[in-house]
Amino acid sequence: MRRSRYWVHPINQRRREQGDFHHLVAELRLDSQRHHQYFRMSVVQMEELLSTIGPELTRQSTNYRAAIEPKQRLAVGLRYLASGDSLISLAFSYRLGHTTVANSVHMVCAAIVKVMMDQFLPRPTQQMWEEVAEGYWRKTQFPNCIGAIDGKHVTIQAPPLSGSQYFNYKKYFSIVLFALVDAYCRFRVIQVGDFGRTSDGGVYANSDLGRVMESKTLHVPPSVSLPGAAQLGDVPFVMVGDAAFPLKPYLMRPYPGQNLTHPKKIYNYRLSRARRTVENAFGILAARWRIFHRKINLHPKKVDNVVIAACILHNFLLNPTDNQRYINESEQQGRNMPAVPNMGGKRASKEAHQVREGFCTFFSSPEGSVYWQDRMV
């Protein structure tokens, strides 16, 4: 017997009487705490977001069905990011068609990327790098630092006919989110979409950030002396990373090994304090948007947009007073996006070693030391 086809299924025709948007979401607007738990943002922030991207979510009604209003599309998209629920689950709770929910999620993410990218992930300028460096010196006491870098896996459903490209070293399918973060856990540069199997320097070496830093075309300020230590000469502005990254004149990593001298231990500690900001940023991102704790069952290109949109919203919502709460929540869950391993590469140049030695000397000097560092190592 042939199944009946509907323009709108009878169950979904009752969305105004029984759907989540017209009841639960309306009630949540009267309870700020629960609204924040549900959408991971306040009513005011959600209204601001709607006013920004609402025109991109507007569609024309037809003779057969009324268009879903932008506010409901936004609610569905944000709930998808905040909960990690499946599209089918959201379709039932909001009494919408599965295709409508999928389209809403994609429309919301695409609108965020299109409209908000230039404001919340702008192209770097020299002034921006100087502001980032000032923030690192003020907050982590690491001078001439333009950001901390790291890469994280985002779990995805195995794409059809993809072979082992997305299959990573931990034996699941993923894409990589590679990011440079400032001292306040704000994403400054991101790259999304590298295959999960990429390693051995592939993610960093093939990133736009790696190429433009190598070619010195990223508007990084010229070398300057470290604070109060002109005798050490001019030192370049650098990024900081963990032991998986290569040592470059513009990229500092820890000293390897166990039997290190005291100044080298101090350097490693000071580098770790600065580098921790990128780990915290990933922790905040995953704690706020629980989609990162689930296997994302979308095409990889769609996943790219979801991840970029989540990073933009992270910057849009970032509040230093909330950071520690999200970091604690991430640690309590005990689950974060695993790091990308083995990104180190070629032997470091003599210039790179000299730059690291300059920082090492500075951190153990009267001008660069902090009173608590000796007890921390």
From TrEMBL:
<dbReference type="InterPro" id="IPR045249">
    <property type="entry name" value="HARBI1-like"/>
</dbReference>
<keyword id="KW-0378">Hydrolase</keyword>
<comment type="similarity">
    <text>Belongs to the HARBI1 family.</text>
</comment>
<dbReference type="GO" id="GO:0005634">
    <property type="term" value="C:nucleus"/>
</dbReference>
<keyword id="KW-0479">Metal-binding</keyword>
<feature type="domain" description="DDE Tnp4">
    <location>
        <begin position="149"/>
        <end position="315"/>
    </location>
</feature>
<dbReference type="GO" id="GO:0016787">
    <property type="term" value="F:hydrolase activity"/>
</dbReference>
<dbReference type="GO" id="GO:0004518">
    <property type="term" value="F:nuclease activity"/>
</dbReference>
<keyword id="KW-0539">Nucleus</keyword>
<dbReference type="InterPro" id="IPR027806">
    <property type="entry name" value="HARBI1_dom"/>
</dbReference>
<dbReference type="GO" id="GO:0046872">
    <property type="term" value="F:metal ion binding"/>
</dbReference>
<protein>
    <recommendedName>
        <fullName>DDE Tnp4 domain-containing protein</fullName>
    </recommendedName>
</protein>
<keyword id="KW-0540">Nuclease</keyword>
<dbReference type="Pfam" id="PF13359">
    <property type="entry name" value="DDE_Tnp_4"/>
</dbReference>
